[in-house]
Amino acid sequence: MEHLELFFKSIFVDNMVFAYFLGMCSYLAVSKKVSTAVGLGAAVIFVLTVTVPLNWFLDQYILQPGALVWLDGNTETPELSAYAGYDLSFLSFILFIATIATMVQLVEIVVEKFSPSLYNSLGIFLPLIAVNCAILG
C-alpha cells in the first residue's frame, strides 16, 4: 500500500514537471499538432533514457574519488592502486552536460535524416531538449 501511495504522490503531487512547469515552453510551442508534440516527447524520452544510465556509469567509474582504481586491475587492494588518489568529481557538471548535448545532437541528426517534416516543425525547440534534459535528468 505504501508503494502505491508513493507512486500516485510522485505522479500527481510531487511531480517536478507539473510543480515547477519545467520544460513546458517547448511543449506548448510545438503542441499545435499532436504528431509534433509526440515527436518532441519521444526525443526527450530517448535522450533521458540513454543519458541517465550513461551519466551514472561515468560518475561511478570515472568521476568519483578513487573510481579509477579499476584501471590497473588491482581489485583486491584498491587502496594501493596508483589511481586511488585521483578525484575527478569537479568535472561532473561539464561531463554530464557534454553527454546530454551529444545525445541531443545525435537525435537532431537522426530526425533531420529520417523525418525532415518533423525536423522543420520542431525548429529551434529540438536543441532545447538539452536544457530540459539537463534540468530534469
Secondary-structure topology with pairs:
Elements (H helix, E strand, L loop, with lengths): L1 H12 L2 H5 L3 H7 L3 H30 L28 H23 L1 H7 L6 H8 L1
Summarize the structure.
By secondary structure, this protein is an all-alpha fold. The protein contains seven helices and no strands. The chain is extended and about 60 Å long.
Properties at a glance:
single chain, mainly alpha, 0% strand
Please describe what this structure looks like.
This protein is extended. The chain is mainly α and 137 residues long. The mean pLDDT is 81. Helix 4 (34-63) runs antiparallel to helix 5, helix 4 crosses helix 7 (129-136) and helix 5 crosses helix 6. The protein contains seven helices and no strands. It has helices spanning 2-13, 16-20, 24-30, 34-63, 92-114, 116-122, 129-136. It has one domain (17-136).
Biggest sheet, in brief?
none
Distance between the termini: 28 Å
Percent in strands: under 5%
Residue-averaged pLDDT: 81
Count of the separate structural domains: 1
What would you call the structural class?
A: mainly alpha
**Secondary structure tally: strands:** 0
SS summary, helix count = 7
